[in-house]
Design brief:
The complex is a heterodimer. By secondary structure, chain A is an alpha/beta fold. In chain A, about 35% of the residues lie in helices and about 25% in strands. Chain B is globular and about 65 Å long. The chains are: A alpha/beta, B mainly alpha.
Chain lengths: ~230, ~220
């Protein structure tokens, strides 16, 4: 189980010395954390570093107090199984919605029949069973985003990182995803990056404001007040 | 007749074997190099890709000439006795298609490989499973790159002529046979061989189109 992820003095660049994150220090824990900031402020990179996908150039990612990038491979794999990141642009594989939902479990070596059973329960729970045989090209962007979130949810991670989950969605799908986030944040950590987090403001337990790769606000009330003011 | 009908299947098979091996050989260095390059944070990475892109149309005859100078008996690698052998053509074609292959692979790696790798890792796959997953998901795109590179290799003349020497039953391939037929004034044969080459190209292009259509599903 992963309880806490701490980023300590994180510096990250895609091109040498051109830092996208500059000395980031944050603590992520249970509940809903909003990471807000304008476009190209470093939100996505921050989420990818915090979810242990990208290795920082400098600084440490501490998972329950232990530096992730110094862990042995088996330990990294154990940690990784408790952290899931959902990309801003939905990434779906070839095959049906059901194949996509099951992909995470199959990648973890779970038997296909078991995976299918679990996937069907979740599809039923979120009223998506009618989509299960559709292929990725037949889905709207909102439906694709939902499939990606359900796929992540099926893995029951302790930490879920959602990158702009509300972007480009119609009202109905937006409501559904907000409802979904409210449901999952009860018993796990959900970190949402967004430059338009308005629908989630009331539900947020923590908020972080990032600008030009620097965390400029981590006082939840202040950041929330700032956002309400901006709206 | 300069080239008999009985010789034709052999020439076609030799062309496929030589260009196929050259494609695989080029893949052996192009794929790891491209992955390394795509992961690099070096500021000159994009400039290097720009240079590779501009080398895609590198004249085949120039590659042939350079290799001739290297492989000829007085050249630095003359002792390998590779000149006028199928191996020399394979090396030449592999080098010739490397810029094209790397340019195409770079697109695939940046667009798909990194995306599927990230997806697999973010879904908690082990490195071994993630590697299989990426290969499974990007195989059709990699096949397209291989087919396009093969297409460039099988249609080239400069390398095959200069370092292969067009030796009957040994290094004679479709393009060198066409050149020989034209030189001998046997235009019917040249046109026929040209049609064979064209048919192969069309088949390859059709396969690429079908793979692309399947990919988009």
């Amino acid at each position: 189980m992963v309880r806490e992820i701490v980023l300590k003095d994180i510096w990250f660049s895609y091109i040498k010395k051109k830092y996208v994150l500059r000395g980031v220090n944050i603590k992520l824990r249970r509940g809903l954390t909003l990471v807000v900031g304008p476009n190209a402020s470093g939100k996505t990179t921050l989420l990818k570093v915090a979810s242990c996908i990208y290795m920082p150039d400098q600084g440490r990612v501490l998972v329950d107090g232990v530096s992730y990038w110094d862990m042995p491979d088996e330990e990294k794999e154990r940690v990784r199984r408790n952290i899931v990141y959902v990309h801003e642009s939905p990434i779906l594989i070839r095959g049906s919605v059901l194949d996509n939902i099951m992909a995470g479990l199959l990648l973890r070596g779970i038997d296909r029949r078991v995976a299918e059973k679990k996937a069907l329960v979740l599809l039923e729970r979120w009223h998506m069973r009618h989509l299960m045989m559709k292929r990725r090209s037949e889905l709207s962007r909102g439906e694709q985003q939902l499939v990606c979130i359900i796929r992540a949810l099926l893995l029951s991670p302790d930490f879920m990182f959602l990158d702009e989950p509300l972007a480009h969605l119609d009202l109905r799908n937006r409501r559904l995803i907000v409802e979904l986030i409210r449901d999952i944040k009860r018993d796990r950590a959900v970190v949402v990056a967004s430059n338009n987090p308005h629908p989630l403001l009331d539900d947020a337990d923590h908020a972080i404001l990032i600008q030009n790769g620097v965390v400029v606000g981590r006082n939840t009330h202040e950041v929330k007040d700032l956002l309400v003011e901006a709206w | 007749m300069l080239i008999t009908m009985e010789e034709l299947p052999g020439i076609i098979m030799r062309s496929i074997m030589i260009s196929g091996t050259a494609t695989l050989l080029s893949t052996a260095w192009s794929l790891p190099l491209t992955i390394k390059l795509s992961l690099s944070k070096h500021p000159l990475k994009e400039s290097l890709m720009g240079i590779l892109n501009s080398l895609v149309g590198f004249p085949t005859v120039l590659v042939g000439l350079l290799l001739y100078l290297v492989f000829s008996s007085s050249g630095p690698l003359g002792m390998l006795r590779l000149i006028y052998t199928p191996q020399a053509i394979i090396i030449g074609e592999a080098l010739l298609i490397t810029p094209l292959m790397m340019s195409l692979l770079y697109e695939v790696v940046c667009r798909s490989v990194s995306v599927y790798w990230e997806l697999a890792i973010s879904l908690g796959a082990s490195k071994r499973r993630a590697t299989w997953f990426v290969m499974e998901q990007t195989l059709p795109e990699l096949m397209i790159v291989l087919l396009m590179s093969f297409s460039r290799a099988i249609g080239e003349l400069g390398v095959a002529l200069l370092v292969g020497g067009n030796i009957k039953g040994f290094t004679r391939v479709i393009t060198t046979s066409i050149a020989l037929a034209i030189e001998a004034g046997e235009f019917d044969l040249a046109v026929f061989l040209g049609m064979v080459l064209l048919t192969m190209m069309i088949l390859l292009a059709t396969t690429v189109r079908l793979l692309r259509a399947w990919l988009e599903k």
